[in-house]
Amino acid sequence: MKFSINRSRFIKTLNDVQRAIASKATIPILTGLKMSLSEEGLTLTGSDADISIEAMIANDDPDAQLQINETGAIVLPARFFGEIVKKLPEQLMTIAVSDGFQTTITSGASSFNINGLDANSYPRLPEISAEEKLTIPADILKQVISQTVIAVSNQESRPILTGVHLTVHDTELLAVATDSHRLSQRKLTIENPHDLEYDVIIPGKSLTELAKIITDDLESVTLRITENQVLFTAGVIKFYSRLLEGSYPDTERLIPTESTTNVEFESGTLLASVERASLLSHASQNNVVRLVFEPENQQATIYSNSPELGNVQEDLKFESLTGEKLDISFNPDYMKDALRSFGQTNIKMAFTSALRPFTLIPSEDGANFVQLITPVRTF
Q1: Whole-model pTM above 0.85?
Q2: Under a CB-based contact definition with an 8 Å cutoff, are residues 314 and 286 in contact?
Q3: In which domain, by residue range, is 158 found?
């Protein structure tokens, strides 16, 4: 195996693939980067058994300057190899593999020799046999991921909650995540020419990594699902992830349909106030911020205190406030995550009581996106 390639173009693809490679793995060869060279181009593969990423640099890619001398395959230690490539002196580099898997990397006056592994020992990627695929606009998929993964659980005690529940029925895609303290739900109308029906749970960590490789110049991402694997195809990148097994909780019943107190804020203004209040709440053990709404006086106030440091009180600016008086406490970190997911827009908050979950929805498109937060009992 021997080829020359533009180093910047190679590094761009390497960075995408390395997202799937762990520094430590139960299968040692998975700490390596697999490179396969064919007449069509160079394919890089990385995997940690849960996520696998495969990306191809085509031989007709004008930015790659790929020159193929001899086809073949090799697995190289990903971390070490990556550091070498990023520090080479020239834009063009050459990689040559001898019979004993020894690999020579040259660029300008610099030359490295490193030991590789037999590519035939590298685990095969999952086979996705499903012909039908779902096509989703790339920017919308990235937005849906960012709006839902914030609510996945980090606790392995309930593995099912570490994923995002994705269902597709007719022309509706529904993505839901909850860690039992908060919930995020996003609905999306899609084109579904094959009438595909999906009901799967995708690990939140997988979706977070997927979002990082969805670039602004990408138009769409295709989705294929088999029994225990999902394949996202984003341009020249194939992103495989295992699916979580089990039944996701029925979350529809958790979202209240009625409210007794309603308030509308500009999300950025409220976020700034919550961030100021959380400066003190983070200094205390319970990390709680309090909101008091007085519709009769048209007043909304945020409070936070730390016994060691002091307290903060701030009158909030709002667009509208109706209903009953309310005094409610919550985790400010959950609120900040929720508010950031809306971007710069007006949001409506609906409350039923001081101890019942409350919702946040965008003022203009409330039917398709909802964040839910469970209050904290302070007495």
Answers
A1: yes
A2: no
A3: 134-242
